[in-house]
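tool=predict chain=A
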Amino acid sequence: EIFNRIERDSNREYLLRVSYLEIYNENIMDLLSPQNDNLQVRESAKRGIYVEGLREEIVVSPEQVLRIMKRGEHARHTSATEMNERSSRS
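tool=predict ok
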């Protein structure tokens, strides 16, 4: 687990960021900031490939990551299918 490794490595400083997106009907939506929809994938020499405008939140614990993911779950497009009750449509 990443947080255990960071804790053991006292010689470095780490900054972890979390983002959560959904691709649905060829649109990219920020699940942490749902009003940010139809985002664009970009590429730059400095950042590499990234999603422009995607919200990133700094995290310091696994519990914090889970809380953020739970918050993003509410914005996902889902629908029941015969195979399961909560199938993602992304």
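The beta strands are 16-18, 21-24, 27-30, 40-44, 48-52, 57-59, 78-79, 87-88. The mean pLDDT is 88.
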